[in-house]
Design brief:
The complex is a heterotrimer of chains A (about 325), B (about 425) and C (about 160).
Chain A lengths: L1 H12 L8 E7 L7 H16 L4 E7 L6 H10 L4 E4 L1 H4 L19 H8 L2 H13 L4 E7 L3 E6 L13 E3 L4 H10 L2 E3 L3 H9 L5 E5 H6 L10 E9 L2 E6 H6 L2 H35 L3 E3 L4 H18 L2 H11 L1
Parallel strand pairs in A: 1-2, 1-3, 6-7, 6-8, 9-11
Antiparallel strand pairs in A: 3-10, 4-10, 5-8, 5-9
Helix pairs in contact in A: 2-11, 7-12
Chain B lengths: L1 H14 L3 H14 L8 H10 L6 H14 L2 H13 L5 H14 L6 H17 L4 H12 L9 H10 L3 H30 L9 H26 L5 H19 L8 H31 L2 H13 L2 H18 L2 H18 L4 H14 L8 H10 L3 H24 L2 H10 L5
Helix pairs in contact in B: 1-2, 2-13, 3-13, 4-12, 4-13, 5-6, 5-11, 6-7, 6-8, 6-10, 7-8, 7-18, 8-18, 8-19, 9-16, 9-17, 10-17, 10-19, 10-20, 11-12, 13-16, 14-16, 15-16, 15-17, 16-17, 17-19, 18-19
Chain C lengths: L1 H34 L7 H22 L8 H5 L2 H33 L13 H4 L1 H29 L1
Classes of the chains: A alpha/beta (about 325), B mainly alpha (about 425), C mainly alpha (about 160).
The complex binds sodium ion (2 copies).
C-alpha cells in the first residue's frame, strides 16, 4: 500500500521509476472480443496494474500473438509471451503427458466437482508436475474453463444406440477419440473454421462443444447441428501459465501481485463463462434449436474402464482416484 | 527505429538483395532491437508461418497448371478458344483473352497461364500481323484474371488471414473476373477494327463440336474444384489435390500427352516456383510479428477514424496502397504483412471481409503487370522479346481496364455478390 | 567445391520433391478416408510437416540458382569489378543473415526437440524444426560458393 506509493513517487523524481517496472505480455488464442478468456485476462491486467501502481504493465493479446495454442506455448517457452492460456491437448505436445488426465471424458460430474478438484490437492499436484516436467519453463497460476461440452447433431440422442454409425467432429486426442469410438460414433477431424459448412452440408453428422463456442458460430442453426443433447461429457480445464524462469526473476513483491492477479482472473473467467453458458443456451433455444437431457449413467459407466486404463498408462492412477473421491 | 528499418529495407532492395531476404533481415534486425521479443522468434515464426494446411494448396495449384502446360492441355484450350471467337475481328487476341479465362478456372496462379499461352499465342499473333505491343500486352494483362476467377491462391491466403470463407471468396471472384475479360475483348475489338486486324476462318460446326468434345475433360476441372469447395465436399487444399490427380490422369490417359518420365521435371518446376513465394511468406511472417508488436493495426484504425473517417476514401487508399506494394512485392507476402494492418479499420467501416478480399486480390493482380516486379509482365516481355519499358507501355490500357472494373466492384459490390448469394446463401 | 555443391543441390532437390510427393499422397489419403468415414487423424499433420520441409529445401536450392527475386537494376548497370564488388556485398549479406538464422535455428531445435506431434505423440517436433538450420546451413554453403566465384572475378579484374 501506502509505503510503495511514496517509494514510487520518489523514484519517479530521480528517474529510476523504470528500473523495477516490468511489462507482461498476456495472450490467448480467441479473436472474438466477447470471450471469457478476454474477460479473465483483462481482470488480470486490471489487478496487476492497480496493485503495482503501474509498475507492472500488462498487454493483453486476443489472438494477435497467435490463434494456435501451440504457438502460444512456444512463445511462452521462448519468453516472447509471459502469460498464456492452454488446453490439456496442447500441453501434451510439450511432452507432459500427465495433463491429458483432465481431458478424460466424464471425469467430472459437475462444475462443483471440477472446482473442488482443481482448487484442491489434485490441482496442486498437477501444477507441480507441469512445473517439474517442463524444467520450470511453465508455472501454473490458475485453472480456467472453456465450459462443459455437449453433443449436437442431426438427431437428438435418446440412448447410446443413437450414436451408432454417426460421424462426430471431435478432438483428435487419444482417449477422447477412443471413447467416442466405443459409443459407436465415428470421430472425424475437421477444422473448426470449416465445421459450420460441414454441418450444413452433411460432411459430418454431429459435433460436440460448449454452448458459448458453437452458438457463437451458429452451428445450432445448421441441419446437422440443431439437436443438442446435454451429454456433459467434458467439464473442460484450461491452464493459465507463466514462464517459471522469468517469474523467479521478478521481485518478491511482483510475484505476489502476479499471483494475486491470477487468482482474481480465475474468478472473473469462471463468472464470465458461467454467465455466457446460460446466455448462449437461451439464444440456442430462441433460435429454435431443440435441447434434450439424457441419462448420463450408461455413458459414465462406459468411460470408467477407459479412464482406468489411460490413467495407468499415464501413471496418474492416484490422481484419478482422488478425483473420483472428490465427487462423493 | 521504424524509420531506420524502412530505410534499410529500401537500401537492401536497391542494391539487389533478394526481396524475401530483405524482408527476413529487416524482421531479424528489428526483433533483435526489441527486448521483449526474443531472437528465436524469427526462425519460429518462419516455420509457423508455413504450418497451415490451407497453404498446401499453393504448390498444388501450381502443379495443376504445370501439368496442363506439359500435357499440352493448354494447346487444346487455345484451339477451342480460337474456334469460338477467332472469327471476330482480332480473333487471335480474343482467343488469347478467352483462353486465359478458361485457364483461370483451373489454375490458382497467373504466371503459368502467361507462360503456357504466351509461348504459343505471342509468336502466332506476331506472324498474323499483330504488333508486338498488342501481343505482349494482351497476353500478360489477360492472365491476371487467373487469380480473380477461382481457384485463386491469393484468395486462399486472404481467407486464411481473416477467417473468411474460401468458398465465398471464390464465388465472388467469378463475375469480376469475367467482366475484366469481356471489357478487354471490347477494347480489343475497337482497336482491331481501327487497325484492321485479321479474322480467322470460321470453324466448321462438326470440327468445332469435335474440339469441344476433346476439351470437355479439361473443362471439367473447374467444376470439380469450385463445385467441390462450394458443396463442402472438399476443402480448398483437398480440391487442389484432386485437381492434380485428375489433370495427371487425363493428360496421361485421355490426351496421352504426358509420360511418366516428364514428371520429375514438372515436380521440380513446381517445387521451385512455389518455394520462392512460400519462402517470402515465411520471412513475411517473421516481419509480421514485428509489425504486430508495434500494433500497426490499431494505429491504422486510430489514424483512419481520426483523419479519414470516410469509407469510400479508405477504399481508395487501400487500392492505391496495394497498387504501390504490388509493384515490388508478391501478392502473398504483401497480404501477410498488410492485411492484418488494414483489417481492423475495414471492419470498423463496416466493409465485409469477403468484399475487402476481392478488392485486395484484384488490386494485387494488377501488380502482376506493373514493373519492376510484375511476374506476368516479365514473362510475356521475355517471350515477346521486348524491353520491360515497352512492354509496360503496351500493358497500360489493359491495366486501366482492370482498374475500372476494380473500382466498379469496390463501390457496387452487389455486382459481384448478387449471383453467389443466390447460389449458396449459407456461405455469406 | 563445385562438385560438392552440385551433389548437395541434387540431394536437396530430391528431398524437396520427395516431401512434395508425400504431402500430395497424404492429402489424397485424407480425402478418401474421410469419405469412407474412417478416422485417420495423422494426415493433416504429416502433410503440413512434409510441406514445410519441401518449401525450405526448395528455397535453399533457389539460392544456389539465384532465382529468388531481386532488383537487378544496379547490378546490371555496374560493370566488371564494381559489379563483382556489389555481388560480394550481396553474398556476404545473405551469409550473415543465414549464419544468424542457423544459430537461432539450432537453438529453436534444442528448445522444441522433445515436443510431440499432436496426432502421433511418438514423433518428435525436432524432426520438423531441424529443417530450418538445414536450410540456413545449405544457403550458407551455396552463398559461399558464389562468393568464391565473385572474388575470383574481382581478382582477375585486378590482374587485367
Ligand atoms: Na484461377
Ligand atoms: Na508488380
Amino acid at each position: 500500500g501506502g509505503e510503495e506509493e511514496t517509494n514510487n513517487e520518489g523514484s519517479g523524481d530521480n528517474g529510476e521509476g523504470g528500473s523495477d517496472s516490468i511489462k507482461i505480455v498476456a495472450a490467448h488464442n480467441q479473436t472474438s472480443p466477447e470471450n471469457p478468456y478476454q474477460d479473465g485476462l483483462l481482470k488480470f491486467k486490471e489487478v496487476a496494474e492497480e496493485e503495482s501502481n503501474g509498475n507492472i504493465e500488462v498487454e493483453v493479446h486476443a489472438g494477435t500473438l497467435g490463434t494456435e495454442e501451440s504457438e502460444l506455448v512456444e512463445k511462452l517457452k521462448l519468453g516472447a509471451a509471459d502469460v498464456v492460456l492452454v488446453s490439456p491437448g496442447f500441453m501434451t505436445q510439450t511432452g507432459i503427458d500427465e495433463v491429458n488426465l483432465f481431458a478424460f471424458p466424464y471425469l467430472f460430474e459437475s462444475y462443483d466437482h471440477w472446482e473442488k478438484v482443481v482448487q484442491g490437492e489434485v490441482g496442486e499436484e498437477m501444477a507441480q508436475i507441469i512445473n517439474e516436467k517442463s524444467n520450470n519453463d511453465f508455472k501454473l497460476v490458475g485453472y480456467w474453463t472453456a465450459g462443459v461440452r455437449h453433443y449436437y447433431g442431426k438427431k437428438p440422442i435418446e440412448s447410446m444406440d443413437d450414436l451408432e454409425g454417426m460421424t462426430i467432429r471431435t478432438q483428435t486426442s487419444g482417449v477422447v477419440s477412443d471413447y467416442w469410438k466405443q459409443t459407436g460414433a465415428i470421430p472425424t477431424s475437421l477444422a473448426w473454421g470449416e465445421l459450420y459448412q460441414g454441418l450444413q452440408q452433411d460432411v459430418v453428422d454431429s459435433a460436440e462443444n460448449a454452448y458459448p463456442y458453437f452458438v457463437q458460430q451458429n452451428h445450432h442453426q445448421t441441419d446437422n447441428g440443431k439437436y443438442i443433447t446435454e451429454t456433459g461429457h467434458d467439464y473442460t480445464t484450461r491452464f493459465l501459465l507463466v514462464n517459471g524462469n522469468e517469474f523467479d526473476n521478478y521481485t518478491e513483491e511482483q510475484q505476489e501481485i502476479i499471483l494475486k492477479a491470477a487468482e482474481a482472473s480465475v474468478q472473473a473467467e469462471w463468472e464470465s463463462l458461467y454467465a455466457q453458458e446460460e446466455e448462449y443456451k437461451q439464444i440456442a433455444i430462441d433460435d429454435g434449436a431443440e435441447i434434450n437431457e439424457i441419462d448420463r449413467q450408461p455413458f459414465i459407466e462406459l468411460a470408467k474402464p477407459l479412464q482406468d486404463q489411460a490413467a495407468e498408462e499415464l501413471g496418474v492412477t492416484d490422481l484419478l482416484e482422488k478425483i473420483r473421491q472428490a465427487a462423493e | 527505429m521504424g524509420f531506420i528499418l524502412v530505410g534499410l529495407f529500401i537500401l537492401l532492395m536497391f542494391i539487389g538483395v533478394p526481396i524475401a531476404f530483405v524482408i527476413g533481415i529487416v524482421a531479424l534486425l528489428g526483433i533483435m532491437n526489441i527486448e521483449y521479443i526474443p531472437e528465436l522468434t524469427v526462425p519460429m515464426k518462419m516455420l509457423n508461418g508455413l504450418n497451415s494446411f490451407v497453404l498446401l494448396a499453393v504448390p498444388l495449384f501450381i502443379l495443376v497448371a504445370n501439368l496442363m502446360n506439359s500435357g499440352k492441355i493448354s494447346e487444346k484450350l487455345i484451339e477451342l478458344a480460337l474456334a469460338m471467337v477467332g472469327w471476330i475481328r482480332g480473333g487471335l487476341a480474343h482467343a488469347n483473352i478467352l483462353v486465359s479465362m478458361m485457364f483461370a478456372g483451373v489454375s490458382g496462379a497467373s504466371q503459368a497461364d502467361t507462360a503456357g499461352v504466351g509461348k504459343i499465342l505471342i509468336p502466332s499473333m506476331k506472324k498474323n500481323g499483330y504488333d508486338k505491343e498488342t501481343a505482349v500486352g494482351i497476353t500478360s494483362a489477360s492472365s491476371t484474371v487467373g487469380v480473380v476467377i477461382p481457384p485463386s491462391i491469393p484468395m486462399i491466403i486472404f481467407a486464411g488471414l481473416t477467417n473468411a470463407s474460401v468458398g465465398a471468396l471464390f464465388l465472388v471472384g467469378i463475375v469480376p473476373g469475367v467482366l475484366v475479360g469481356l471489357a478487354m475483348m471490347i477494347f480489343v475489338y475497337i482497336i482491331a477494327v481501327k487497325r484492321n486486324y485479321r479474322k480467322q476462318d470460321r470453324t466448321e460446326l462438326n470440327k468445332f463440336l469435335k474440339l469441344l468434345g476433346e476439351s470437355i475433360p479439361a473443362l471439367i476441372t473447374p467444376i470439380i474444384i469450385i463445385g467441390g469447395i462450394i458443396t463442402g465436399f472438399f476443402t480448398a487444399t483437398e480440391s487442389a489435390a484432386v485437381a492434380t490427380v485428375y489433370t495427371l490422369l487425363i493428360s496421361m490417359f485421355f490426351y496421352k500427352t504426358l509420360k511418366i518420365r516428364d514428371l520429375p521435371k514438372i515436380l521440380f518446376d513446381t517445387l521451385a516456383l512455389s518455394s520462392l513465394s512460400l519462402f517470402a511468406l515465411a520471412a513475411a511472417s517473421a516481419l509480421g510479428e514485428l509489425m504486430s508488436f508495434y500494433q500497426l493495426g490499431l494505429r491504422a484504425q486510430e489514424f483512419f477514424v481520426d483523419y479519414v473517417d470516410a469509407k469510400w476514401l479508405f477504399i481508395i487508399i487501400i487500392i492505391l496502397f496495394f497498387l504501390f506494394i504490388g509493384t515490388f512485392m508478391d501478392a502473398i507476402p504483401a497480404m501477410i504483412l498488410f492485411v492484418p494492418v488494414i483489417l481492423p479499420t475495414a471492419l470498423q467501416f463496416g466493409i465485409d471481409p469477403i468484399h475487402l478480399g476481392l478488392i485486395v486480390v484484384m488490386t494485387l493482380a494488377v501488380g502482376l503487370i506493373t514493373p519492376p516486379y510484375g511476374l506476368c509482365l516479365l514473362l510475356a516481355a521475355k517471350i515477346g522479346d521486348m524491353s520491360i519499358e515497352r512492354s509496360f507501355k503496351a500493358v497500360i490500357p489493359y491495366m486501366i481496364i482492370i482498374l475500372v472494373v476494380l473500382l466498379f466492384i469496390a463501390f457496387f459490390p452487389d455486382v459481384a455478390f448478387y449471383v453467389p448469394e443466390l447460389l449458396n446463401p449459407d456461405l455469406f | 567445391m563445385n562438385r560438392f555443391v552440385r551433389l548437395l543441390e541434387k540431394t536437396q532437390i530430391f528431398v524437396g520433391v520427395a516431401f512434395l510427393c508425400v504431402f500430395i499422397v497424404t492429402i489424397l489419403i485424407q480425402i478418401t478416408t474421410r469419405h469412407l468415414e474412417i478416422a485417420v487423424i495423422w494426415t493433416e499433420e504429416v502433410a503440413t510437416h512434409s510441406f514445410i520441409w519441401s518449401v525450405f529445401m526448395g528455397a535453399a536450392v533457389m539460392v544456389n540458382r539465384r532465382e529468388h527475386f531481386s532488383f537487378d537494376y544496379l547490378t546490371k548497370k555496374l560493370k566488371g569489378r564494381k559489379q563483382a564488388t556489389l555481388n560480394i556485398i550481396i553474398d556476404i549479406t545473405l551469409i550473415a543473415f543465414n549464419v544468424l538464422i542457423f544459430n537461432y535455428g539450432i537453438k529453436v531445435v534444442e528448445q522444441f526437440w522433445n515436443y510431440n506431434w499432436v496426432s502421433m505423440p511418438d514423433l518428435k517436433m525436432g524432426y520438423v524444426w531441424i529443417a530450418i538450420p538445414i536450410m540456413a546451413g545449405t544457403m550458407i554453403i551455396y552463398s559461399l560458393s558464389h562468393l568464391v566465384k565473385h572474388v575470383q572475378v574481382l581478382r582477375s579484374g585486378e590482374v587485367q
